[in-house]
């Protein structure tokens, strides 16, 4: 499927995996997919870069919280801020992640999106990890090198929806969920040491795990959504920005048709399932 969409993805046999990455246990695998053009980035630096570029292009950033919208007929005419100010607007785009359902509900949109906490852990081990790529395995383990250690996590989809940023339970989660998965896939990492944990929120779309993008035909035509990314948002962000710009300016997607990811599928009860991620 990757190749059909032009992705440079290579199938590696067990022997090829063992030769390239001897730290990886392979006896319970059928093979692996390797994407040589993929990588990872510092999300904070990426955001700063995008923001600086937007400012150079004339964008203005207002450091206030949006708390509601003003409407007239079938249009949104402005946004209310928590300071009491109101910003007039010809177009409003709701991109506030876990907070998107609250704003949308004021306008009659019901979104099956909720905040879902997940932990990210930093650990160090005696083994040299710098040669490892980013690895994702069938147990939902994600791991990549970071300095002299590694960043790792296992998403717990049973985590209850809540605005919970605490790291309470992070060490227990690491010991019971992450460490066993790491030790299984990378036996040489059995002696690693947990150094720190952070928590963050997925805007988890419980309906089908995919983004909700675009407007709702016949309902406030100048109000757009881009939310419910369920952990994929950073990867999708540049393409989503382009797609929304096309939709707003030209009333249609021009580069990639994202119509199947619109809000109408939710009202119709027709989930758009992900086929490329287990």
Q: Can you describe what's shown?
A:
- This protein is α+β, with helices and mostly antiparallel strands and 278 residues long.
- It has three domains: 1-38, no CATH class; 43-112 and 207-267, FAD/NAD(P)-binding domain; 118-202.
- It has six helices and 13 strands.
Summarize the model shown.
By secondary structure, the chain is an alpha+beta fold.
* Measured distance between first and last alpha carbons: 14 Å
> What is the makeup of the main sheet?
5 strands, antiparallel
C-alpha-based Rg, rounded = 21 Å
Q: What is the count of helical runs?
A: 6
Quaternary organisation: single chain
Series of secondary-structure elements, N-terminal to C-terminal = EHEHEEEEHEEEEHEEEHH
The strand line-up of the biggest sheet is: 8-9-10-7-11
How many runs of DSSP E, i.e. beta strands?
A: 13
Q: Specify the CATH architecture of the largest domain.
A: 3-Layer(bba) Sandwich
CATH fold title of the largest domain: FAD/NAD(P)-binding domain
List keywords for this structure.
278 residues, three-stranded antiparallel beta sheet, alpha+beta, five-stranded antiparallel beta sheet, FAD/NAD(P)-binding domain
How is the topology of this model organized?
Layout: E1 10-12, H1 14-20, E2 32-34, H2 43-56, E3 66-72, E4 75-81, E5 86-88, E6 92-94, H3 100-105, E7 113-124, E8 135-136, E9 141-146, E10 149-154, H4 170-185, E11 193-205, E12 212-214, E13 223-227, H5 233-250, H6 264-267
Parallel strand pairs: 6-13
Antiparallel strand pairs: 1-2, 3-4, 4-5, 7-10, 7-11, 8-9, 9-10, 12-13
């Amino acid at each position: 499927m990757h190749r059909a969409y032009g992705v440079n993805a290579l199938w590696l046999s067990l022997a090829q995996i063992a030769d390239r990455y001897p730290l990886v246990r392979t006896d319970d695998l059928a093979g692996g997919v390797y994407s040589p053009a993929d990588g990872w980035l510092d999300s904070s630096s990426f955001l700063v870069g995008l923001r600086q570029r937007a400012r150079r292009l004339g964008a203005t950033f207002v450091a206030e919280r949006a708390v509601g919208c003003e409407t007239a007929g079938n249009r949104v005419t402005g946004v209310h801020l928590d300071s009491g100010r109101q910003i007039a607007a010809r177009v409003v785009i709701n991109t506030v992640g876990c907070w998107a359902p609250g704003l949308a509900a004021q306008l009659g949109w019901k979104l099956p999106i909720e905040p879902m906490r997940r932990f990210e852990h930093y650990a160090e081990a005696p083994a040299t990890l710098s040669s490892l790529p980013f690895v994702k395995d069938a147990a939902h383990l994600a791991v990549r090198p970071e300095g002299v250690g590694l960043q790792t996590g296992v998403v717990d989809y049973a985590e209850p929806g809540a605005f919970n940023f605490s790291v309470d339970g992070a060490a227990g989660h690491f010991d019971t969920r992450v460490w066993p998965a790491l030790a299984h896939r990378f036996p040489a990492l059995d002696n690693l040491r947990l150094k720190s944990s952070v928590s963050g929120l997925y805007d988890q779309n419980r309906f089908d795990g995919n983004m909700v993008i675009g407007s709702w035909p016949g309902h406030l035509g100048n109000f757009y959504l881009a939310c419910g990314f369920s952990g994929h948002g950073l990867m999708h962000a540049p393409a989503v920005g382009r797609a929304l710009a096309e939709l707003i300016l030209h009333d249609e997607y021009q580069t990639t048709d994202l119509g199947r990811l619109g809000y109408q599928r939710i009202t119709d009860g027709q989930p758009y399932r992900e086929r490329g991620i287990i």
